[in-house]
Write a structure and sequence with these properties.
By secondary structure, this protein is an alpha/beta fold. 32% of the residues lie in helices and 24% in strands. About 5% of the residues have low confidence. It comes from Deinococcus humi.
Length: 293
């Protein structure tokens, strides 16, 4: 009888451990992207956070939808996507989203084919193609994930109308560019991005900072020797790890413990070999969104 009771007790304990209710899914992005790398890096220094499970997605746009639809508990997003949902879409659910960790700046990358120079029979030289952001006027721009929102915001803020062509992912965007279906590709990614370092035969289109972008974007520079011999001016938007405003004590305790560990391990995240270089930019001091407390 004692043996049977012991077995039943062990079985019950095992089932309780297997069904741990304190488990959070975290929406990141592409497995080769910066969001995924940053999430894995935190897991390396905060080993007690095994209850956080990564969920790969198409990026910020998917992530914010998954979070607001209760399909994940945390999500990596661009702060301009949050602001657009709040100010443009006026989605009331955004009020329940809080910043757990402010992260790094994500640079706007605009890719185009090199301009083509031609001469008329009269000797007049004509240059066609996308050389500046203003050249995107009435052109077609491919984007995916949160970059679709960024493309809309930049078009409105800078008064440069263009057609945004939403695509599934990065390969689809460049397939469209190579096929002549779009004139440029706009991608919001934290540099250095491994896949950008592997590109050739394209150019980065400069996007200098201007007053209409103030309050959402900051000045930045793209440094990819394979695409430009010198730095290319652009703008950046801050990324942030957000969560819903959980009130349940056990959930709140674990989220705040995760936040505290990451902040306390910042030096390790910045200095340990193998960590993503974007950690050099993180301070955890600038909150682009109301903080989870």
């Amino acid at each position: 009888m004692t043996r049977v009771l012991s077995l039943l007790l062990l079985s019950t304990l095992g089932a309780a451990q297997a069904a741990d209710p304190i488990s959070f899914n975290v929406a990141t992005g592409s497995p080769t992207g910066t969001y995924s790398a940053m999430f894995k890096n935190i897991g390396q220094v905060c080993t007690q956070s095994a209850y956080l499970k990564e969920r790969g997605t198409g990026g910020s746009l998917d992530n914010i939808d998954l979070l607001m639809n209760n399909e994940v508990s945390l999500a990596f997003v661009q702060s301009d996507v949050l602001k657009a949902r709040q100010q443009i879409d006026q989605d009331p659910r955004v009020a329940n989203i809080k910043a757990l960790l402010p992260l790094y700046d994500e640079e706007i990358h605009i890719f185009a084919k090199p301009p083509v120079t031609s001469k008329s029979f009269l000797g007049k030289t004509t240059v066609t193609g996308v050389q500046t952001f203003n050249d995107l006027k009435n052109k077609r721009v491919a984007a995916w994930g949160g970059s679709v929102i960024t493309a809309k915001v930049l078009s409105a803020k800078l008064a440069v109308p263009y057609s945004i062509v939403p695509v599934k992912d990065q390969p689809a965007a460049f397939a469209a560019l190579n096929a002549g279906q779009v004139d440029a590709v706009l991608a919001v990614i934290g540099q250095p991005a491994a896949w950008v370092k592997g590109l050739s035969g394209l150019r980065l289109v400069p996007l200098p900072f201007s007053p209409p972008l103030e309050g959402i974007y900051t000045s930045a520079k793209l440094l990819y020797p394979n695409l430009s011999v010198s730095g290319v001016p652009t703008v950046a938007v801050q990324s942030v790890l957000v969560t819903r405003d959980f009130k349940t004590p056990d959930k709140k305790e674990r989220l705040l413990a995760y936040q505290k560990c990451a902040v306390g391990k910042l030096i390790s995240l910045q200095e340990d070999e193998g960590m993503h270089p974007k950690w050099q930019q993180v301070t955890f001091k600038t909150w682009p969104w109301p903080e989870y407390k």
